[in-house]
UniProtKB/TrEMBL annotation:
<dbReference type="InterPro" id="IPR002938">
    <property type="entry name" value="FAD-bd"/>
</dbReference>
<keyword id="KW-0560">Oxidoreductase</keyword>
<keyword id="KW-0812">Transmembrane</keyword>
<keyword id="KW-0472">Membrane</keyword>
<dbReference type="GO" id="GO:0004497">
    <property type="term" value="F:monooxygenase activity"/>
</dbReference>
<dbReference type="Pfam" id="PF01494">
    <property type="entry name" value="FAD_binding_3"/>
</dbReference>
<keyword id="KW-0503">Monooxygenase</keyword>
<dbReference type="InterPro" id="IPR036188">
    <property type="entry name" value="FAD/NAD-bd_sf"/>
</dbReference>
<comment type="similarity">
    <text>Belongs to the 3-hydroxybenzoate 6-hydroxylase family.</text>
</comment>
<dbReference type="InterPro" id="IPR001763">
    <property type="entry name" value="Rhodanese-like_dom"/>
</dbReference>
<feature type="domain" description="Rhodanese">
    <location>
        <begin position="17"/>
        <end position="55"/>
    </location>
</feature>
<feature type="transmembrane region" description="Helical">
    <location>
        <begin position="369"/>
        <end position="394"/>
    </location>
</feature>
<keyword id="KW-1133">Transmembrane helix</keyword>
<dbReference type="GO" id="GO:0071949">
    <property type="term" value="F:FAD binding"/>
</dbReference>
<protein>
    <submittedName>
        <fullName>OLC1v1015803C1</fullName>
    </submittedName>
</protein>
<dbReference type="InterPro" id="IPR044560">
    <property type="entry name" value="MOase"/>
</dbReference>
Length: 408
């Protein structure tokens, strides 16, 4: 059966995925004056699930360019520092990767998603639209998004923000995302009705091979995560079982850590493997084909060891919209003469975006990949090589938060 084409001309911008990257991209394009922007999201509502995420200075610069920075600052306290605590050894040290001259706040994921979505014009997001493939128009080679309900959506520009299992990345010929096999992370939120009295500090607590991270969002809400090696590489999916298994793996940690996990919000708990795109794929990967590109995890899924996944996606959105705005300077051309938009300008804009982002995300991806290699129980030789590269190449551990993606 032939696919049903939605609309005679489709849309100027089709964004696949309504997560952080997709919503930020739609908002950035609207801020640049582009009106015909549509986000196709497979869920039937906003995907606001999930606990928290840390946004450092580089991410806040991008949020300010999107016009939502101040609104989000009201929802999270300013973190004053970071500390690495070695439980067994009874000692602690300041984390050198934390930039005290900058800005770091931990946001509840739903707050970020809702603020981005609410800033978009009504009708921008189309829910319940499961992308299954990307094809091209045989006449003009423009992209067509194929949905699971047998609808086809023509687009002038198609942007894949559909995560690590991206159908758009498949179209570009990018390799599948990999994951570390011996460890993963449990994440959750804990609410304290009468305030938690914890300092506004990002704390890492290490014991044996397990690590607990604790970050206050506000005076009543704390985001936490536990990086661990699940027995046999398996971990339960049921939230109650996740909490029970996690409690078993934090024995020997301070009482407040155990209590924090015991009182956690079950709906916020999840276990995820740690996924990434290999750094050499960032170097060689084809991130643009025709007028199709990707951003966020679809482009550069990376381990969370530097807390840059969300911030990097926000940067992507600003850089992409800026490059498109610089190349496609006439909005009248977009609105009134859809069929004769200069394809060369579109492709040049996307190439400019890819070129600007490639080295930035290579730096982030390589650094986090090497940390993951060290934690993934390698041979002593591999571990030594990874440590030496980190020491030599990444001497300035705060470089990633000092980055400025520039004006929109």
């Amino acid at each position: 059966m032939d696919s049903v084409i939605e609309g005679e001309n489709g849309h100027d911008f089709v964004i696949v995925g309504g997560g952080i990257g997709g919503l930020a991209t739609a908002l950035a394009l609207h801020r640049k004056g582009f009106k015909d922007v549509v986000v196709y999201e497979r869920s039937k509502r906003l995907r606001a699930e999930g606990p928290g995420l840390v946004i450092f200075s580089n991410g806040w610069r991008a949020l300010d360019q999107l016009g939502v920075g101040d609104q989000l600052r009201e929802k999270a306290i300013l973190l004053q520092g970071a500390e690495d605590v070695y439980v067994d050894q009874g000692k602690s040290q300041n984390l050198s990767s934390f930039d005290r001259s900058g800005e770091a706040r931990c946001l509840k994921r739903s707050d970020l998603i809702n603020v981005l979505a609410n800033a978009l014009p009504r009708g921008t997001i189309r829910f319940g639209c499961n992308a299954i493939a990307v094809k091209t128009n045989s006449q003009n080679m423009s992209p067509i998004l194929q949905l699971g309900d047998d609808k086809a959506i023509p687009a002038k520009i198609l942007i894949g923000c559909d995560g690590s299992n991206s159908k758009v990345a498949d179209f570009l010929g990018l390799k599948l995302i990999s994951s570390f096999k011996t460890f993963g992370a449990v994440r959750g939120l804990t609410k304290y009705p009468n305030k938690h009295l914890l300092p506004p500090t990002f704390v890492h607590m290490r014991r044996d091979k397990n690590l607990v991270g604790r970050i206050p969002i506000n005076d009543k809400l704390v985001f936490w995560y536990v990086e661990l090696s699940p027995p046999g590489g398996q971990f339960p999916n049921d939230p109650e079982l996740i909490r029970k298994a996690t409690l078993g793996m934090v024995k020997g940690f301070p009482f407040e850590v155990v209590e924090m996990i015991e009182k956690s919000d079950l709906a916020s708990l999840s276990f995820t493997d740690i996924r990434y795109r290999h750094p050499w794929e960032i170097v060689a990967g084809n991130f643009r084909r025709g007028s199709v590109t990707v951003l966020g995890d679809a482009m550069h899924a990376m381990p969370p060891f530097r807390g840059q996944g969300a911030s990097a996606a926000l940067e992507d959105a600003v850089v992409l919209a800026r490059n498109l705005g610089q190349r496609i300077c006439s909005l009248d051309q977009f609105e009134g003469r859809r069929n004769i938009i200069d394809c060369q300008k579109i492709r040049a804009a996307l190439d400019g975006y890819v070129k600007e982002r490639r080295m930035r995300i290579l730096h982030l991806s390589l650094q986090t990949y090497l940390i993951g290699v060290i934690l993934d129980k390698p041979s002593l030789i591999v571990k030594f090589i990874a440590i030496m590269i980190l020491v030599i190449v990444f001497r300035d551990e705060t470089r990633h938060v000092k980055y400025d993606c520039g004006k929109l």
